[in-house]
Amino acid sequence: MAEPDIALGIDVGGTFTDVLALNRNTGKLVSAFKVLSTPENLAAGAVTGVDRYRERNGDPAGAVFHGTTVGTNALITKKAARTSLVTTKGFRDVLALRRHARPRLYDLSPCISPPIVPRELRLEVTERMGHEGEILTPLTPEEVERIIRLVRDANVEAVAVSLLHAYANDAHERTIGAALEAALPDVFVTLSSDVCREFREFERTSTVVVNAFIGPVVQSYIDRLGDALSARNIPRLSIIKSNGGLTSAANACRYPVHLIESGPAAGVIACAALGAEEHLGDLITFDMGGTTAKAGVVVGGQPKLSTEFYADRFVDGKDVGGYPIQSPVIDLIEIGSGGGSIAWIDTNGTIKVGPDSAGAQPGPACYNRGGELPTVTDAHVVVGHIAADGFGSEDLGISPDRARDAIASHIAEPFGWTVEQAAWGILRLANASITEIVRLATLRRGLDPRAFSLVAFGGAGPLHAAEVAREVGVPRFVVPTVPGLFSAVGTMLGEVRHDLVQTLLRRTKNLSKTEVTEEFSRLKRRTRDLIAAENTGGNWHFKQLVDARFEGQLFELTLPFKDGETLTGDNLDRTFRSAHYDTYGYDLPGHTVQLVNLRLVASSTVYDGKWPTSVTEADTPPNRSRRVVDEKGTAYDVSVQHRGVLESGMTIQGPLIIEDFGSTIRVLNNQSVEVRPSGVLVVSDNEVEK
Question: Residue 538, exposed/middle/buried by CB under 10 A (0-12, 13-18, 19+)?
Fold first, then answer.
């Protein structure tokens, strides 16, 4: 018998850190549990999870696959590195000028995300490249020495170098970067030509600045975690990226900007794999944890990717623009509405839910850890949806009395309501917000939700899925095994992946196939260092894509470029016009098609074994009933079943509550549950028009 090949999947959330152990030889999940996150030192929660696995299991782990929000938190809180920007003379204010578009067009007092780098730390260097890469103003050694002195005097921890048109010719950036690294070895130096070889000056500069700003924080976190794992004889650490792919610790430290959506991406990857395994068709992904709710789509088996997104865009519920990052990311819509989201009354006497969260410390009032403010979780406890034994974390118990006290004092009494009425008010508001992001991910993008299945996961997702799916018009929702730890499953299912891009602005009539071939060869050569830093021995696959547009348009369509196909002006013109018609419903016969970017995706499979099968619990509670209160204040008994007793092929009618490890599943009246052989639950709604 082969030795067990154990991999740990660890997903750090705002409230819980989820830990799964997978035997990759058998495809069996051998352990699953939650520990409380440690906001003051996120690595500590992950290490606690590793130690708990080691205490309980005799088989050593050989790898950790990790989803992290450390970069996101550093950006949102602005608790990151003191950063300087080196840019071409005359362009120091690119970060402040942004684009002319405002988040709220007719708002006379707009609130815009402030530049990460203050003006006094934005340094200008005399040099100039043309858009074709020609040197217009040479960079002199004296200028390089002057910049080094300015950076040293500024006493910064990180430097971003973003020179005009460096995507076309990076010689000046390389010279400055090498000089800074030699003179200031303790400073984190990052170049735009290394992080983002695309045009659009503001977006490219923003991307490299974010990379520098969060770089030292992310590097310190990964180094601490890596050292802790090495001390425990775990040799491999892989981090999931915003595009859903995995990368080594070394590459993650070099490109932390690629980790901004690390945690949420893992859940979508798991959904795509589940959809393929269970033949579920197109999917809406619905992930609701302790702090946020997120919605995305999987179409044709693939998560929808965006080549640009805006980090930290919503502050206190307002769109403030955020920080554009030019990097492939799984397209998700996210709001501050999770189980720990705090309910409050604003100055106009209106109830609001979120975006502030009670997090892990102190947590919802019902956690009995010092929290006094009412949350969505407290509301579920009050109306009877959640039992006192919590979500499967042995570090946590539930206090219904504290949940009632918090809702009574902060919501119910000011309005003269019963505690149950106030609790349902909180839940209705949370559901309304979640329903809107599902609509944004589907209806607002031309997708009919009736043609999708909704996959609900996260600790709170299955609690809300029944009502959200019914409201949006989704005919069925799906609850995977271990839904409360599903993102941790996703960390182990991704492939190692790197996305590279090179701007090449050419009209199709001027397109040289030799030039295109040479640029793709350069992109492939750039992957060598990335691949060398990966700890995988698998075969690497390369996928070529191009971005194209009608000349004068501001946005592009990304088109696949088949292996062995020669990209010519004629076939690009035909392919783009067909794709534009399919996407937008029209063509512009008299307009010129323009190539904008070449893209190369390098990937390698990490785990190609069986779909992970769930752990079974030794002690399964018997079926019972629980007293719940509906929206009208009527109390009634509802059947409560444990997922462990559900047998393959069963069909159960709602209403009922299904208790699962790490989550609770609600099934409404006129909904029925099908138990598939894999243990996946498919809930169909008879009230939704197919």
Answer: middle
pLDDT tens digits for range 541-584: 999 999 999 999 988 999 988 766 778 888 899 999 999 998 88
Contact 276, 319 (CB under 8 A): no
Sign of torsion over alpha carbons 150, 152, 154, 160: positive
Query: 476 and 348, same structural domain?
Result: yes
541/655 same-domain check: no
- In whole angstroms, what is the distance from residue 423 CA to residue 629 CA? 10
Query: Residue 220: how many CB atoms within 10 A of its CB?
Result: 14
- Residue 33: give its domain's CATH number: 3.30.420.40
370-401 burial: b if 16+ Cβ within 10 Å, else e:
ebebbbbbbbbbbbbbbbeebbbbeebebbee
Count up the domains in the chain and report the number: 4
Written as six digits, the tokens of 373 are 């403010």
CATH number at residue 192: 3.40.50
The answer as to whether 614 is a domain residue is: no
pLDDT of 161 reads 98
Question: Does 167 share its domain with 32?
Answer: no
pLDDT at 652: 93
DSSP category for residue 621: P
Does 103 share its domain with 55? no
Q: Quote the pLDDT of residue 537.
A: 66
d(CA 296, CA 541): 26
Decide which of 68 and 498 is more confident: 498
Write the CATH number for 545.
3.30.1490
Chain segment 98-154, per-residue pLDDT in tens = 987 777 777 777 788 899 999 999 999 999 999 999 999 999 999 999 999 999 999
Whether 393 has a pLDDT exceeding 60, the answer reads no
Query: Which residue range(s) make up the domain with 564?
Result: 495-605
Of the candidates 605, 487, 593, the residue with the CA atom closest to the CA atom of residue 550: 593
Query: With DSSP H G I counted as helix, E B as strand and the rest as coil, what are the percentages for the chain, rounded to 5?
Result: 35, 30, 35
Helix crossing, 376-383 with 419-441: angle to 10°? 120
- E strands of 13-170, at which residues? 16-23, 28-36, 61-67, 83-88, 122-125, 128-129, 135-137, 158-162
Residue 375 DSSP code:
B
Q: How far are the Cα atoms of 8, 118, 457, 463, 575 from residue 391, in angstroms, in the given order?
A: 20, 44, 13, 12, 51
Mean pLDDT of 661-668: 89
Confidence band of 249 (pLDDT split at 50, 70, 90) = very high
- 65 and 109 part of one domain: no
C-alpha separations of 250 from 184, 218, 496, 567, 688 in Å = 20, 11, 13, 34, 49
Q: Are residues 153 and 232 in the same domain?
A: no
pLDDT at 660: 87
Report the pLDDT value the prediction gives residue 298, as an integer from 0 to 100.
95
Closest CA to 124 of 168, 93, 83, 82: 93
Amino acid in position 226: G
DSSP letter at 50 equals H
Backbone angles phi, psi at 396, to 5 degrees: -135, 135
In a domain, 267, yes or no: no
Mean pLDDT over 47-59 rounds to 88
Looking at the structure, tell me whether residues 96 and 65 fall in a common domain: no
In a domain, 42, yes or no: yes
Does residue 331 lie in a domain region?
A: no
| 56 and 97 belong to one structural domain | no
